[in-house]
Amino acid sequence: VLNSASASDLSLLLSPSVALLLDIMIVAGLQKLAKRKGPYDINPGLLDYLTMDTYAFPAGHASRAAMISKFFLNHLVLAIPLRILLVLWAFCVGFSRVMIGRHHITDVLSGFVFGYLQFMLVELIWMSSNTCQMLISIW
Question: Is 109 a residue whose pLDDT tops 70?
Fold first, then answer.
């Protein structure tokens, strides 16, 4: 049995992990539905097929960066400079996808929106420390 401090740490670890898995599934599903290509006609390589990175809308990197940034901003106590760096990091992730020609700006903006919405969903279904202990004991 975990003590209370490690149980809350476990909840801070498992809930974002579930959020990332949720993001991968939602973004992949939306990309398969939209089937929007990036701004340049780039033939996807083997790695792109393995990582399901063949379509552009919405931008998965941007959604994950927005979700993780929002998670850290809400659940960690960070100094103001670190908070600013975290937000800048998320924007740089999205901007870099536009700069390398993988996404349109609207793909990235929609990725940010989807990332924020997924964060809100995970906040609604946040796993308590007891739930995390139960899941770990099952494994």
Answer: yes
Domain count, the chain: 1
- 110's CB contacts (< 8 A; 6+ apart) are 57, 58, 59
Cα separation, 75 vs 93, whole angstroms: 21
Instruction: Identify the domain containing residue 11 by its residue range.
Output: 1-138
Instruction: State the catalytic residues.
Output: 61, 103
**DSSP of 9-55:** HHHHHHHHHHHHHHHHHHHHHHHHHH----SS-PPP-HHHHHTT---
Q: What is the DSSP letter of 102?
A: S
Q: Is 126 helix (H, G, I), strand (E, B) or coil?
A: coil
Task: Give this prediction's pTM.
Answer: 0.70
For residues 17 and 132, the answer to whether their CB atoms sit within 8 Å is no
14-46, pLDDT tens digit by residue?
677 778 888 888 888 887 877 777 676 666 666
